[in-house]
Fold this protein.
Amino acid sequence: MFECVINISEGRDLPALEQLSRAAGSSLRDRHRDRFHNRAVFTMINERDQLLLDVHSLVHSAYRLLDLRQHSGVHPRLGVVDVVPFVALGPERPEEACALRDATASWFAESFSVPVFLYGPLSDGTVRTLPEVRRWAFTSLAPDLGPGEASPSRGAVAVGCRPILIAWNLWLRDVTFDEARRIASAIRQGAVRSLAFRVGEEVQVSCNVIDFGSVRLSQVYDQVSALLPRGGAIDRAELVGLAPRALLESESEERWEELGLSPDATIEARSAR
Protein backbone atom coordinates (compact mmCIF):
# COMPACT_ATOMS: atom_id res chain seq x y z
CA MET A 1 0.00 0.00 0.00
CA PHE A 2 1.08 3.53 -0.74
CA GLU A 3 -0.20 6.92 0.34
CA CYS A 4 -0.28 10.02 -1.84
CA VAL A 5 -1.24 13.30 -0.15
CA ILE A 6 -2.07 15.71 -2.96
CA ASN A 7 -2.30 19.40 -2.12
CA ILE A 8 -4.58 21.33 -4.49
CA SER A 9 -4.78 25.14 -4.60
CA GLU A 10 -8.52 25.38 -4.03
CA GLY A 11 -10.39 25.43 -0.73
CA ARG A 12 -13.47 27.58 -1.36
CA ASP A 13 -15.33 26.29 -4.42
CA LEU A 14 -17.36 23.42 -2.97
CA PRO A 15 -18.82 22.17 -6.28
CA ALA A 16 -15.32 22.00 -7.74
CA LEU A 17 -14.03 20.19 -4.66
CA GLU A 18 -16.84 17.66 -4.95
CA GLN A 19 -15.89 17.00 -8.56
CA LEU A 20 -12.26 16.56 -7.54
CA SER A 21 -13.26 14.15 -4.78
CA ARG A 22 -15.16 12.01 -7.27
CA ALA A 23 -12.17 12.07 -9.61
CA ALA A 24 -9.95 10.72 -6.81
CA GLY A 25 -11.90 7.48 -6.96
CA SER A 26 -11.61 4.60 -4.52
CA SER A 27 -8.21 5.78 -3.30
CA LEU A 28 -9.63 8.85 -1.54
CA ARG A 29 -9.58 8.38 2.24
CA ASP A 30 -9.83 11.97 3.46
CA ARG A 31 -10.28 15.51 2.17
CA HIS A 32 -9.41 18.54 4.23
CA ARG A 33 -10.07 22.07 3.01
CA ASP A 34 -9.32 25.52 4.32
CA ARG A 35 -10.89 28.62 2.81
CA PHE A 36 -8.26 30.98 4.18
CA HIS A 37 -5.36 28.92 2.86
CA ASN A 38 -7.59 28.33 -0.20
CA ARG A 39 -6.19 24.83 -0.28
CA ALA A 40 -7.43 21.27 -0.09
CA VAL A 41 -5.52 18.17 0.92
CA PHE A 42 -6.60 14.88 -0.66
CA THR A 43 -5.26 11.85 1.21
CA MET A 44 -5.22 8.85 -1.13
CA ILE A 45 -4.26 5.29 -0.16
CA ASN A 46 -4.30 2.19 -2.31
CA GLU A 47 -2.27 -0.47 -4.06
CA ARG A 48 0.20 0.92 -6.56
CA ASP A 49 -1.68 0.56 -9.85
CA GLN A 50 -5.06 1.77 -8.61
CA LEU A 51 -3.45 4.64 -6.73
CA LEU A 52 -1.70 5.86 -9.87
CA LEU A 53 -4.93 5.68 -11.86
CA ASP A 54 -6.74 7.77 -9.25
CA VAL A 55 -3.86 10.25 -8.92
CA HIS A 56 -3.91 10.76 -12.69
CA SER A 57 -7.69 11.24 -12.64
CA LEU A 58 -7.53 13.83 -9.85
CA VAL A 59 -4.74 15.77 -11.54
CA HIS A 60 -6.55 15.82 -14.90
CA SER A 61 -9.66 17.18 -13.18
CA ALA A 62 -7.74 19.81 -11.22
CA TYR A 63 -6.09 21.19 -14.35
CA ARG A 64 -9.44 21.16 -16.17
CA LEU A 65 -11.37 22.96 -13.41
CA LEU A 66 -8.88 25.36 -11.85
CA ASP A 67 -6.76 28.30 -12.99
CA LEU A 68 -3.88 29.59 -10.86
CA ARG A 69 -4.44 33.12 -12.17
CA GLN A 70 -7.71 33.21 -10.21
CA HIS A 71 -6.21 31.94 -6.96
CA SER A 72 -5.52 33.85 -3.76
CA GLY A 73 -4.80 32.52 -0.29
CA VAL A 74 -2.42 32.83 2.65
CA HIS A 75 -0.59 29.55 2.00
CA PRO A 76 2.43 29.58 -0.34
CA ARG A 77 1.89 27.62 -3.55
CA LEU A 78 3.75 26.68 -6.71
CA GLY A 79 0.78 25.60 -8.77
CA VAL A 80 -2.80 24.39 -9.11
CA VAL A 81 -1.57 20.91 -8.25
CA ASP A 82 0.93 22.11 -5.70
CA VAL A 83 2.50 19.17 -3.87
CA VAL A 84 2.34 15.45 -4.68
CA PRO A 85 4.21 13.31 -2.10
CA PHE A 86 4.31 9.51 -2.15
CA VAL A 87 4.66 7.52 1.08
CA ALA A 88 5.38 3.79 1.45
CA LEU A 89 3.03 2.08 3.92
CA GLY A 90 3.17 -1.36 5.50
CA PRO A 91 5.67 -3.72 3.90
CA GLU A 92 6.46 -1.39 1.01
CA ARG A 93 9.98 0.03 0.86
CA PRO A 94 10.77 3.77 0.75
CA GLU A 95 12.61 3.39 -2.54
CA GLU A 96 9.38 2.09 -4.12
CA ALA A 97 7.66 5.35 -3.18
CA CYS A 98 10.52 7.23 -4.81
CA ALA A 99 10.04 5.18 -7.98
CA LEU A 100 6.38 6.26 -8.00
CA ARG A 101 7.53 9.86 -7.53
CA ASP A 102 9.90 9.67 -10.48
CA ALA A 103 7.33 8.07 -12.78
CA THR A 104 4.69 10.63 -11.77
CA ALA A 105 7.12 13.53 -12.22
CA SER A 106 7.86 12.41 -15.78
CA TRP A 107 4.13 12.06 -16.45
CA PHE A 108 3.49 15.64 -15.26
CA ALA A 109 6.19 17.05 -17.51
CA GLU A 110 5.23 15.02 -20.57
CA SER A 111 1.44 15.22 -20.25
CA PHE A 112 0.96 18.80 -19.05
CA SER A 113 4.22 20.62 -19.83
CA VAL A 114 4.52 22.01 -16.30
CA PRO A 115 7.81 22.53 -14.47
CA VAL A 116 8.45 19.74 -11.96
CA PHE A 117 10.60 20.02 -8.84
CA LEU A 118 11.60 16.80 -7.06
CA TYR A 119 12.05 16.51 -3.32
CA GLY A 120 13.15 13.72 -1.02
CA PRO A 121 16.17 11.51 -1.85
CA LEU A 122 17.70 12.43 -5.21
CA SER A 123 19.77 10.39 -7.65
CA ASP A 124 23.00 12.17 -6.66
CA GLY A 125 22.65 10.94 -3.06
CA THR A 126 21.47 14.24 -1.61
CA VAL A 127 18.10 14.90 0.01
CA ARG A 128 16.08 17.96 -0.96
CA THR A 129 13.29 19.21 1.29
CA LEU A 130 10.00 20.79 0.28
CA PRO A 131 10.88 24.06 2.08
CA GLU A 132 14.03 24.23 -0.06
CA VAL A 133 11.91 23.86 -3.19
CA ARG A 134 9.57 26.62 -2.06
CA ARG A 135 12.46 28.92 -1.19
CA TRP A 136 14.67 28.45 -4.24
CA ALA A 137 12.35 27.40 -7.10
CA PHE A 138 12.99 29.40 -10.28
CA THR A 139 15.90 31.29 -8.67
CA SER A 140 18.88 29.14 -7.71
CA LEU A 141 16.88 25.94 -8.28
CA ALA A 142 15.80 25.06 -11.81
CA PRO A 143 13.02 22.55 -12.49
CA ASP A 144 14.18 18.94 -12.63
CA LEU A 145 11.76 18.19 -15.48
CA GLY A 146 9.53 20.14 -17.82
CA PRO A 147 9.87 23.74 -19.03
CA GLY A 148 12.01 26.30 -17.26
CA GLU A 149 9.14 28.71 -16.59
CA ALA A 150 5.84 28.24 -14.79
CA SER A 151 2.63 27.84 -16.74
CA PRO A 152 0.40 30.91 -16.22
CA SER A 153 -2.72 28.80 -15.60
CA ARG A 154 -1.19 25.69 -13.99
CA GLY A 155 1.99 26.97 -12.34
CA ALA A 156 4.50 24.29 -11.35
CA VAL A 157 4.41 21.21 -9.12
CA ALA A 158 6.59 19.64 -6.42
CA VAL A 159 6.59 15.84 -6.54
CA GLY A 160 8.22 14.02 -3.64
CA CYS A 161 8.74 10.84 -1.68
CA ARG A 162 8.93 10.97 2.08
CA PRO A 163 8.12 9.17 5.34
CA ILE A 164 4.79 9.72 7.08
CA LEU A 165 4.34 13.37 8.01
CA ILE A 166 1.85 14.87 10.48
CA ALA A 167 0.25 18.09 9.26
CA TRP A 168 -1.26 19.81 12.26
CA ASN A 169 -2.57 23.31 13.01
CA LEU A 170 -3.01 25.20 16.25
CA TRP A 171 -5.58 27.99 16.14
CA LEU A 172 -4.79 30.75 18.63
CA ARG A 173 -7.10 33.21 20.39
CA ASP A 174 -6.18 36.73 21.56
CA VAL A 175 -2.74 36.44 19.98
CA THR A 176 -1.40 38.92 17.41
CA PHE A 177 0.13 37.78 14.15
CA ASP A 178 3.58 39.00 15.22
CA GLU A 179 3.27 37.00 18.45
CA ALA A 180 2.22 33.93 16.46
CA ARG A 181 5.26 34.35 14.20
CA ARG A 182 7.55 34.45 17.23
CA ILE A 183 5.93 31.29 18.60
CA ALA A 184 6.28 29.50 15.25
CA SER A 185 9.95 30.45 15.11
CA ALA A 186 10.55 29.30 18.70
CA ILE A 187 9.10 25.81 18.20
CA ARG A 188 10.81 25.20 14.86
CA GLN A 189 13.37 22.40 15.07
CA GLY A 190 14.67 19.43 13.11
CA ALA A 191 11.50 17.38 13.57
CA VAL A 192 9.04 20.30 13.47
CA ARG A 193 8.50 22.76 10.65
CA SER A 194 6.21 25.64 11.54
CA LEU A 195 4.78 28.82 10.07
CA ALA A 196 2.33 31.42 11.33
CA PHE A 197 -0.66 32.48 9.23
CA ARG A 198 -3.27 35.17 9.57
CA VAL A 199 -6.57 33.38 8.91
CA GLY A 200 -9.45 35.84 8.81
CA GLU A 201 -9.78 37.37 12.26
CA GLU A 202 -7.66 34.59 13.83
CA VAL A 203 -4.06 33.46 13.72
CA GLN A 204 -2.72 29.97 13.28
CA VAL A 205 0.54 28.17 13.90
CA SER A 206 0.76 25.52 11.20
CA CYS A 207 3.10 22.59 11.85
CA ASN A 208 4.55 19.73 9.87
CA VAL A 209 5.93 17.12 12.26
CA ILE A 210 8.33 15.16 10.07
CA ASP A 211 9.44 12.69 12.75
CA PHE A 212 6.61 11.95 15.17
CA GLY A 213 8.74 9.28 16.82
CA SER A 214 11.12 11.89 18.21
CA VAL A 215 8.62 14.59 19.22
CA ARG A 216 5.03 14.16 20.38
CA LEU A 217 2.21 16.50 19.45
CA SER A 218 1.51 17.03 23.14
CA GLN A 219 5.07 18.34 23.58
CA VAL A 220 4.56 20.86 20.77
CA TYR A 221 1.15 21.82 22.14
CA ASP A 222 2.57 22.39 25.63
CA GLN A 223 5.49 24.36 24.24
CA VAL A 224 3.15 26.66 22.32
CA SER A 225 0.96 27.02 25.41
CA ALA A 226 3.97 28.09 27.47
CA LEU A 227 4.93 30.71 24.87
CA LEU A 228 1.52 32.38 24.67
CA PRO A 229 1.32 36.02 25.70
CA ARG A 230 -0.77 37.00 28.71
CA GLY A 231 -4.44 36.45 27.87
CA GLY A 232 -3.69 34.30 24.83
CA ALA A 233 -4.97 30.74 24.44
CA ILE A 234 -4.98 27.79 22.09
CA ASP A 235 -8.51 27.74 20.72
CA ARG A 236 -8.27 24.33 19.05
CA ALA A 237 -5.93 21.83 17.40
CA GLU A 238 -6.61 20.51 13.91
CA LEU A 239 -5.21 17.45 12.19
CA VAL A 240 -4.87 17.89 8.43
CA GLY A 241 -5.35 14.55 6.71
CA LEU A 242 -4.68 11.31 8.55
CA ALA A 243 -2.24 10.10 11.19
CA PRO A 244 -0.90 6.61 11.89
CA ARG A 245 -2.43 4.72 14.78
CA ALA A 246 1.01 4.72 16.42
CA LEU A 247 0.73 8.47 16.88
CA LEU A 248 -2.44 8.11 18.95
CA GLU A 249 -0.86 5.31 20.96
CA SER A 250 2.07 7.59 21.82
CA GLU A 251 -0.29 10.08 23.46
CA SER A 252 -2.52 9.80 26.53
CA GLU A 253 -6.06 9.04 25.41
CA GLU A 254 -7.29 11.84 27.70
CA ARG A 255 -5.51 14.32 25.41
CA TRP A 256 -6.69 13.03 22.03
CA GLU A 257 -9.58 15.48 21.73
CA GLU A 258 -7.43 18.40 22.87
CA LEU A 259 -4.82 17.48 20.25
CA GLY A 260 -7.39 17.11 17.48
CA LEU A 261 -6.91 13.34 17.21
CA SER A 262 -9.44 10.54 16.89
CA PRO A 263 -9.28 6.79 16.17
CA ASP A 264 -11.36 7.33 13.02
CA ALA A 265 -8.83 9.74 11.50
CA THR A 266 -6.02 7.19 11.25
CA ILE A 267 -4.41 5.67 8.20
CA GLU A 268 -5.32 2.21 9.45
CA ALA A 269 -9.00 3.00 10.06
CA ARG A 270 -9.55 4.68 6.70
CA SER A 271 -7.55 2.07 4.75
CA ALA A 272 -9.82 -0.67 6.08
CA ARG A 273 -12.94 0.91 4.55
Q: What stands out?
A: Helices lie at 14-23, 48-65, 94-112, 130-136, 177-187, 217-227, 245-249, 267-271. The chain has a mean pLDDT of 95.
